[in-house]
From TrEMBL:
Keyword check for Metal-binding: no
GO CC list: cytosol
Family according to the record: Belongs to the methyltransferase superfamily. RNA methyltransferase RsmG family.
UniProt xrefs under HAMAP family: 16SrRNA_methyltr_G
Top enzyme category: transferase
Localisation: Cytoplasm
Chain positions recorded as S-adenosyl-L-methionine binding sites: G84, L89, V135, E136, R148
Official protein name in the record: Ribosomal RNA small subunit methyltransferase G
DNA repair listed as a keyword: no
Biological role: Specifically methylates the N7 position of guanine in position 527 of 16S rRNA.
Matches recorded under PANTHER family: S-ADENOSYL-L-METHIONINE-DEPENDENT METHYLTRANSFERASES SUPERFAMILY PROTEIN
């Protein structure tokens, strides 16, 4: 048995997330792929397996319930863009946990987008795609645009604004409440919720800043 399976299951229980055995296997296989490819591709600075579990996997898993909550009114299929996704965080985790969401992970670094494509093929995730591009150049529209460890709220929303569908929302994963970044946002972006997160075993502050385009009279 994978030594990370028990702590992963424990973390999922703490997050109140019920996943299938197949989804749990995919999450563990994803970590395995990061570990394998990072030796060649330098995908992440976090390399110890236990640390990868808390800092990458559980940290990303903490957004699943809040994301589902935002999408409860959804009747149609949703598309989510994960900006500056790197090794696929949180995009790949969202694709594994939410097969009903189509997830595109965009990154300017070709080998990172290629890695996400490899994950999609290896883990048979037909709802996941790695896109090699600058986010500013994308023309598709997404109902949710997410980021983690990417840029200031101002740059994130500015660079990805054209990719946001009508009535779409931004989901920015941050550490402690980013009051200064929020104050620097232009008037055409409104923060509608700052949601505190508890990441099992992490012992650090985490939040999601939810934003949407502001209606300007
Ligand atoms: C610090 S990494 C974060 C990776 C991942 N989200 C995570 O949490 O581990 C930021 C990523 O943003 C990518 N990036 C920077 N500018 C970008 C842009 N304009 N469009 C798309 N990706 C970009 C970088 O190549 C890098 O992989």
């Amino acid at each position: 048995m994978n030594t990370l399976e028990a702590p992963l299951r424990q973390g999922l229980a703490e997050l109140g997330l019920a996943l299938t055995d197949e989804q749990i296997t995919r999450l563990l296989d994803y970590l395995g792929l990061i570990q394998k490819w990072t030796k060649v591709y330098n995908l992440t600075a976090v390399r110890a397996p236990a640390e990868m579990l808390t800092h990458h996997l559980l940290d990303s898993l903490a957004v699943i319930k809040p994301l589902r909550h935002q999408l409860t009114d959804a009747t149609s299929a949703f598309k989510l863009l994960d900006v500056g996704s790197g090794a696929g965080l949180p995009g790949v985790v969202i694709a594994i946990c939410c097969p009903e969401i189509t997830v595109h992970c965009v990154d300017t670094v070709a080998k990172k987008a290629a890695f996400v494509q490899q994950v999609a093929v290896t883990l048979k995730l037909s709802n996941l795609r790695g896109v090699h591009a600058r986010v500013e150049s994308l023309t598709d529209k997404y109902q949710v645009v997410s980021s983690r460890a990417f840029a200031s709220l101002k740059d994130f929303t500015n660079w990805s604004a054209q990719a946001l569908a009508e009535q779409g929302i931004w989901m920015a994963m941050k550490g402690k409440h980013p009051a200064e970044e929020m104050a620097a946002l232009p008037s055409n972006v409104s923060v509608f919720h700052v949601e505190q997160l508890e990441v099992p075993g992490l012992g650090a502050e985490r939040c999601i800043v939810w934003m949407r385009p502001a209606l300007i009279a």
